[in-house]
Structure to design on (800 residues):
């Protein structure tokens, strides 16, 4: 739904909405059993919830489109991911609470390993520890670039954020990360004429980084991608008239949430801590985005059994979510990550919505097969929050 | 579908389409029985029809959007309700056959009751009789406004239409009706600078109305809302190449029908009279919109049992509709009005279409649960008429 229309319809109400996102939720059948990860997992609370909910599938971006985490989440926040596009650099910077300024240009950095000929042999430098990465970042901070400030911030393991601050910078700079092994890092080139000056500054920084890292194997080179500036987007409190909070541990999801105007609450990695944080902050907000990462990680690793186990773990949190008595509870995913594919996929994502004003569906459990009987059908993920708004009494009538 | 595309595809044919609208059609389960109004009602003809039809649900405006009667009907007439937006004043004026001119500004009026301090204690003045309202309207007609004509026309019970006619009038005037009790009537202000002169005229009229009505309790004040001008919309005969007729008793629905170029036939309140009117005029038109209001009224009153009874009543008319042998028969609703909510809602609306060229569905009866098996799925209401046009042989092939 167009955000201008949302703004016109949204009204305040004394109701609460919870969006529980299981990252990479949807799956595919195991070749031996014919059952998906969800269908294999023991999830009594999710199954009970499905029987009391309106059920269906979300399409994160469009038919056949495999979304990254950014578009997948933005859609669930009600933002059209084809309109609200965001650079990876900005996502990473905001996610670590870096105070990005509107004129800054940010990129996502990777430490990597190159061989003697300069070819990349490991794009993640053997996933070096965050401590080691932080030491290397300290060294990179000594690199000076003419007339602008260069910030380098550690993120986690081999990841860092690179930010240039100064006058007249552009984000029209091409990735130096070829995103494949066996290739050499790409030169920092301009995507358009406006990016030439900035690309030259980046190229100079990369050259100095190469020199500094040369003897630091396995992290003997750095790659940059996703040059971007901070977008200026409508904020959820303004558009949806919600007080929104994010209960998410991973930087990128916190960053996404903050970009749409959510407050990102401090939270530890364990799901128990997410639930405790939710309970402690229940009175302060009326929309909660709760993020559970580990289903996706297991899927991306191609680990069917671990994904099954992670669903069982997530299921234990459902009881606590229900006990908070939200007016609307949604269980959703940002995209599918079938373990059999070991990657994000385009498959529609299981979705259920529970509130007091729902029609009875005939879904016996929370699974890809059963949800096909759901009344919501297969619908754009960006319509999930408008639907929740209606169920929470937060949309006015349209027209006389 | 875009009306320009409809215009390109539409062709004349010797076929007839009937759209039977049960206002507020969709419902929600009764908390005790788990069955909706439709599932509780004895509707053998509707059930038989469902077994011979293509079945599904319409979304009147958009996911999560609760439509007013205007947008809900415009969508069923094939007009995108987000594009074809209409002010309440115009709707009411056209509905009582007032000869609204393009430069007129119309508003919906309510007689109301205010207390000694001027606060509204009953927005509908105890629903005074149409006779009493008509007498008060006579008095209001004596109010003179500088340089323009002011028309006041009774509608029904506490409702009236207020029209200003003259040069340079604007509809950018704010409602004086706060739409809640306990508040004072609002001043007639301008929504934009263009509305200032007109707002001043309205304010003067309201002041004189207040003086005239002061001793006429319970109707001791008047409220105005929905200032609007006649829109200039494409007409159904031109766009759809149909000769369309409306069989509707309530002014607002007649008004809506006329705005899209239908001829509004004279009809009594009883459904029998609607059927008789349809039969009498069968040869003169090829599209008939038949409106049945009482399902919505019962739903809005929160009267589950009465809504059930009204479905049973409507069902008796289905036999007569079938006997007319229309090429396409659609049973639809402008929106859902669940009795458990006592209000319009955003829930998708049951829909069936019967013609000779349909695929077999597996819907055993006309109900919210059974129609979920339908082949039409959940689709935008504005696509219903294009679908009917196809079934009626009234759409040309697109492209070579």
């Amino acid at each position: 739904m167009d955000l201008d229309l949302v703004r016109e319809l949204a009204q305040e109400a004394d109701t609460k909405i919870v969006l529980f996102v299981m990252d990479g939720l949807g799956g595919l059948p195991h070749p031996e059993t014919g059952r998906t990860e969800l269908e294999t997992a023991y999830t009594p609370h999710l199954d009970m919830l499905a029987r009391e909910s309106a059920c269906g599938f979300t399409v994160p971006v469009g038919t056949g489109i495999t979304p990254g985490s950014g578009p997948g989440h933005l859609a669930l926040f009600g933002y059209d991911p084809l309109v609200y596009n965001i650079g990876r650099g900005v996502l990473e910077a905001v996610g670590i609470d870096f105070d990005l300024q509107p004129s800054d240009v940010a990129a996502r950095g990777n430490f990597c390993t190159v061989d003697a000929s300069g070819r990349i042999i490991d794009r993640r430098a053997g996933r070096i520890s965050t401590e080691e990465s932080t030491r290397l970042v300290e060294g990179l901070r000594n690199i000076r670039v003419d007339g602008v400030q260069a910030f380098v911030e550690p993120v986690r393991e081999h990841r860092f954020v690179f930010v240039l601050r100064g006058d007249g910078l552009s984000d029209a700079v091409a990735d130096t990360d070829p995103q494949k092994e066996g290739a050499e890092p790409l030169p920092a080139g301009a995507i358009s004429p406006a990016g030439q000056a900035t690309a030259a500054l980046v190229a100079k920084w990369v050259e100095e980084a190469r020199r500094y890292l040369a003897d630091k194997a396995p992290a003997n080179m750095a790659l940059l991608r996703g040059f971007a500036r901070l977008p200026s987007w409508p904020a959820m409190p303004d558009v949806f008239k919600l007080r929104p909070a994010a209960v998410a541990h991973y930087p990128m999801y916190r960053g996404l949430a903050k970009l749409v105007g959510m407050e990102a609450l401090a939270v530890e990695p364990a799901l128990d801590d997410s639930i405790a944080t939710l309970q402690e902050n229940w009175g302060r907000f009326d929309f909660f985005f709760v993020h559970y990462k580990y289903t996706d990680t297991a899927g991306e690793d191609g680990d069917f059994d671990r994904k099954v186990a992670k669903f069982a773990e997530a299921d234990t949190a459902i009881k606590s979510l229900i006990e908070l008595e939200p007016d609307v509870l949604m269980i959703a995913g940002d995209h599918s990550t079938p373990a059999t594919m070991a990657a994000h996929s385009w498959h529609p994502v299981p979705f259920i919505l529970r509130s007091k004003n729902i029609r009875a569906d005939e879904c016996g459990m929370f699974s890809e097969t059963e949800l096909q009987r759901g009344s919501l059908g297969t619908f754009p993920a960006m319509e999930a929050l408008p639907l929740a708004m209606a169920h929470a009494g937060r949309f006015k009538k349209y027209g006389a």
Observations:
- The interface with chain A takes residues 28-29, 34, 36, 61-72, 81-82, 85-88, 91, 108, 226, 338, 340-341, 344-348, 368-369, 372, 377-378 of chain B (CB under 8 Å).
- Residues 307 and 349 of chain B are 15 Å apart (CA to CA).
- The radius of gyration of chain B is 22 Å.
- Chain B has 13 helices and 13 strands.
